[in-house]
Amino acid sequence: MNEASKSSNDNIVAAFFNFLKLEKGLSDNTIASYSSDIKQFIVFLKNSVEFTRVTPDIINDYLVKLNRQGLTAKSISRKISSLKQLYVYLMKNKLIQESPLSNIMMPKQGTSIPKPLSENKITKLLNSPDESTAIGFRDKTMIELMYSCGLRVSELIGVKLMEVNLNQGTLLITGKGQKQRLIPMGEYATDYLSNYLTRFRKLLLKVKKSNYVFLSNRGTNMTRQTFWYSIKKYAQKADIYPLPSPHMLRHSFATHLLNHGADLRVVQMLLGHSNISTTQIYTLVAKEKLKEIHQKHHPRG
């Protein structure tokens, strides 16, 4: 092991993550994703090569290894993107003159169409939690809120008391890149959130203090893993297979809005997409639904 290379790479990584957090305002989850990708590259380098001495040939060897591991084009693209950001940072700080990834092409990806739940399955999922218990009512409120507002999981578990306005029925959400957006909750979600805050949250909080809306049974803020486990449990109870991920509630929110005639620009604002091309993927899902209806009901479908 080359200790000098290891020390140099460790210092660069620490400074890079500090830059992502303080200057670019990226979330902890996004930085964790960068960290995972870059640590994997460090393992490949075996601490024998400094970042500043990496060549295009080394990058190509790394891509060959990733392909041999059977990773999808999407996964490989994400890892390349993480490394490109690192080398943009190194160039910006004049530690290198040219990036070894400057001529690296992203692997071609097929269009990934989100898989929403049907409106009937959403209803079954919403009816699964036991509303007579604090945990069940919390989970029902979280599912209702995520589907009503199209939130990301990180946004949902990160909601704080000061960001809730029950009188106006709105949430102030801080999304990717620390961008804020104001979202209407809808009547059902507002009612459930009001009841949860009034009746059940204090039972979960016990003697602790917290600014977060949604709490675990230990009085601490919820984790992504806990919410994923809850969705899985309620989907099994409602006989919904394959088991949905929490993010499918966000997909369902967007798709169902478009199916019911919502404007694409409005859906873009509600989802917090900076580019409408990201939102347009949901129009493909809506078109598939229209084709399905046509084939099912038209005499010559």
Describe the structure.
With 301 residues, this protein is mainly alpha-helical. The protein has 2 domains: 90 residues, DNA polymerase, domain 1 (Orthogonal Bundle), CATH 1.10.150; 179 residues, Orthogonal Bundle (hpI Integrase, Chain A), CATH 1.10.443.10. The protein is 58% helix and 4% strand. The chain has a 3-stranded antiparallel β-sheet, with no helix packed on it. Strand 1 and strand 2 form a beta hairpin. Helix 6 crosses helix 10, helix 10 crosses helix 12 and helix 11 crosses helix 12. The longest helix is centred in the C-terminal third of the chain and has 22 residues.
Q: How would you sum up this structure in a few lines?
A:
With 301 residues, this protein is mostly helical.
List the helices and strands and how they pair.
Layout: H1 3-22, H2 28-45, H3 56-68, H4 73-92, H5 119-126, H6 134-149, H7 153-157, E1 164-165, E2 170-174, E3 180-184, H8 187-205, H9 224-237, H10 247-259, H11 264-271, H12 276-297
Helix pairs in contact: 1-2, 2-4, 6-8, 6-10, 10-12, 11-12
Task: Please give the count of helices.
Answer: 12
CATH fold-level label of the largest domain: hpI Integrase, Chain A
What is the gyration radius calculated from CA atoms? 23 Å
CATH class of the largest domain: Mainly Alpha
Question: Reading side by side through the largest sheet, how are the strands ordered?
Answer: 1-2-3
Q: How many beta strands in the DSSP annotation?
A: 3
Shape assignment:
globular
User: What average pLDDT do the residues reach?
Assistant: 87
* Spatial separation of the terminal alpha carbons: 66 Å
Helix content: 55-70%
- Could you say which structural class the secondary elements and strand pairing correspond to? mainly alpha
- Return the string of H and E elements: HHHHHHHEEEHHHHH
- Given as residue ranges, the uncertain stretches (5+ residues, pLDDT < 50) are none
Q: Into how many domains do the coordinates divide?
A: 2
Identify the CATH architecture of the largest domain.
Answer: Orthogonal Bundle
Biggest beta sheet attributes: 3 strands, antiparallel
Oligomer: single chain
